[in-house]
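Supplementary Methods, section 5.1.

A reviewer requested that the exact input to the structure prediction be made available. We therefore reproduce it here, unchanged from the version used in the analyses.
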Amino acid sequence: MDRFDAMSVLLAVVDAGSLSAGARRLNAPLATVSRKVSDLEKHLGARLVLRTRRGLTLTEEGRAFVVASRRILDELDAAERQAGGDYGALRGGLHVTAPIVFGERFLMPIVPEFLKEQPDISLRLSLIDRQLSLTDEHIDVAVRIGHLTDSALVATRVGAVRRVICASPDYLARHGVPHKPDDLARHDGISFQGFATAPEWRYRRDGAAFAVEPRPKLSVNTTEAAIQAGLAGIGIIRVLSYQVAEHLGSGALMELLPQFAPEPLPVNVVHGPADPLPAKVRCFLDWVAPRLRAQMAS
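The structure derived from this sequence is encoded cell-by-cell as follows.
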C-alpha cells in the first residue's frame, strides 16, 4: 500500500465531506476510494471514519491522523519543491485562517482578485472563531484580533476594532437604557461560550479598567447566534464593532455606554518565523496587508 497516496485519498474524502464527493474530487471510482480508506484503516488497526447517510464523521483516532497526514504531506511537498528549486516560485497551496465574520466581511471580497493575479496558487481559507496553532495545523498566514501572546510570530498590523455592547430598541423599550456600567447588573445578557478570546464586559472609568456583567439570560457559541438573539430582543450582547456595523447603521441595534468602552483591539496578520519565507507567503502578505488596512480604515 502506498501510504502517501492513502493519506491523500483520506484527506480528499474528509475535505469533501463524503466518500462519493471525495471520489468526484479525485476523479476516481467510488469503489477505489472506499477500498483505499478501508485498506488504510486495516493497516493502522484503527477506525478512522464513521460512515453515515449524511456523509462521514472522523473518530478521535481519525482526527489525530488527519492532522498528522496534512503536516506530513505538506512537509513532503515543501521538501520536493525546495529540492527542485521551487521554493521561490509563486505556486502551490496556501493555508490562511481568520475569525469567521472577519473573514467573510474583509477577506472574501478581496481573495478572488488575488487568485486571479496568482493563478498558480491555490488558497485554503479556514474561518473559525478560535485560534489555531500555525505549527500544528500547518497554517501559513493567520489574522489575529487582540494582543498577541506568542512572541515567536511575525506580525503586521492592519488596523484595530472596537469592543461594543448593544441591544435592540425593543429590548431597551422594555427594560430601559443603561446609563453607566453598574446598571448592566440589572439587565439580561447574552454570553459567549467556547471562544478562546471572547469580547469582555470591560469598561474604563477615570483611567482604571473594571468589569460588570449583566444577568446571563442566554449562552451561545457563535457570534451570529449572539447577534440574532440581540436582534430578537433577548438581551444585551458584547461583540466587535465590525460584526454589527450594518445593524448599528440601520438602527436594528443600538450601541450602549460608548464613553466607557475599553481601548480598541489590534488586528494583525501573522506568520511563523520561517527563514527563508516562501515566496507565495511573502506575495500574499504584501498583497493582503494594504488592502485590509484600506478596508478597515473605511
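The chain is about 40% helix and 25% strand. These observations are discussed further in the main text.
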